[in-house]
Amino acid sequence: MTHTLKVTVHQADHLEDVERFGKNDPYAQVAVNLKSKFVKTKVVKNAGKEAAWNQTLDILEYNPQEHDKLYVDILDEETGFDEPIAFVTIPLHTVLAAPGHVLRGRFGLYTVGGKQKGEIVLTIAVVAPGQTEAHHPTGEVQGISELNSEHQAHIKSLKRKESAGDAGTAALLIGAALGAKALHDASKDKAKVQHDAQEKAKAENREF
Questions:
Q1: Which N-terminal residues, if any, form the signal peptide (predicted)?
Q2: Which of 14, 136, 160, 161 lies 20 to 30 Å (CA to CA) from residue 96?
């Protein structure tokens, strides 16, 4: 039976800085299936290494019999492809075992390369059809964080797209610069030809 998985994304701390210039513009996204569409938070502009969203995301297709993991990504918004900052896989049996099927926890994050860096605070609640969500616990536990190989492969694919996008943008900029230089050189050559022709005409006029 399909339930609703409510994920409140509170904040993230000690994130890796992936921006070459400026600060991270991070957002979080969650899913219970890597092949499904992720549900995203808002973007926090210029947040840097610390970000607060305090936003609840609803995953409507959650089935406790089929989905045993929550996949959490944090990405930096870019003009082209967004760059992954961190990720974590959370076992959902810990939520089902919590009082009222609601768990507020602090979960360790992993970089693209698999290094543990940073933390994210989430409240995860399982809501059955016809039921209302239980009250959020005020206490915070240390949640279980997993480094899942399939999830990491997903993150690395996002990184490759972002890197390829950066390379393509750089190639376009270089091409534009070379094109502008070629036009400039052609214009200089044309001006020189015209100047030489004018000087030649003046010299010929002086001879008469």
A1: none
A2: 14
Amino acid code (one letter) for 120: I
Helix (H) or strand (E) holding 119: strand 116-127
Distance separating alpha carbons of residues 120 and 72, to the nearest angstrom: 9
Locate 145 and state its tokens: 């964080």
Reduced to 3 states, what is the DSSP secondary structure of residue 163? helix
pLDDT in tens, 116-159: 999 999 999 999 988 887 778 878 999 999 999 999 999 999 99
Is residue 63 within 8 A of residue 3, CB to CB? The reply is yes
How far apart are the C-alpha atoms of 51 and 94, rounded to whole Å? Answer: 25
Global pTM value: 0.79
Domain residue ranges in the chain: 3-165
> Considering only CA atoms, which of 19, 172, 174 is closest in space to residue 84?
19
Cα–Cα dist 158/176, whole Å:
27
Q: Is 133 helix (H, G, I), strand (E, B) or coil?
A: coil
> What's the half-sphere exposure (Cβ side, CA atoms, 13 Å) at 51?
31
H or E element: which one contains 203?
helix 149-207
